[in-house]
Design brief:
Helix content is 39%, strand content 14%. The protein is an alpha/beta fold and 161 residues long. It has a four-stranded parallel β-sheet. Strand 3, helix 6 and strand 4 form a beta-alpha-beta unit. Helix 6 crosses helix 7. The two termini are 24 Å apart.
Length: 161
């Protein structure tokens, strides 16, 4: 009910996604799916597999695991809106299969006409600009006409709305 009230108050001019972390939302999707359908919102596809399935003794991973939940990757697309948040391992060699999988997913989502937002980060985000640029370059090779990334550093966001 609280989420329903929140979505009712949001301006219609924007599209929204919801990131949930409580395990019950993963074991009982019927708690959330009707709300997403009614509100036109999407659900964040949260993927923390690289920091839970790869070298878990890396100091940056050890420091981050208590902040990033180990939840199942749910990839249902709601309302043609894809928002993926992928937590990569700080060592690039551990990310290959996950990056390849997400490249394939993003290609398929774009081919299906979905609006796709892809956020990549890792326990130490200093690695992310290079990871993101490489991912985007590979995606551009597979999806002609994809817009280039903004030059780094990106302009600062002054407000949320």
């Amino acid at each position: 009910r609280e989420l329903e009230g929140l979505f009712e108050q949001l301006p219609d001019a924007y599209r929204y996604v919801l990131e949930v972390r409580h395990p019950e939302f993963f074991s009982r999707p019927e708690l959330l799916e009707p709300l997403l359908q009614r509100s036109g919102a999407g659900r964040v596809m949260f993927d923390s597999r690289p920091i839970y399935r790869e070298d878990s003794q890396h100091p940056e991973v050890l420091a981050a695991r208590h902040k990033k939940p180990d939840v199942p990757l749910l990839d249902t697309v709601y309302n043609d809106l894809v928002y993926a948040r992928v937590v990569l391992h700080p060592e690039p060699g551990h990310n290959g299969p996950y990056v390849t999988e997400w490249l394939e997913r993003c290609q398929a989502y774009l081919a299906a006409g979905y609006t796709v937002y892809f956020m990549m980060h890792c326990p130490n985000n200093q690695h992310c600009p290079e990871f993101a640029a490489d991912f985007h370059q590979q995606l551009c090779s597979a999806v002609p006409g994809l817009a280039p990334l903004a030059s780094w550093p990106v302009p600062r966001q002054d407000t949320l709305f």
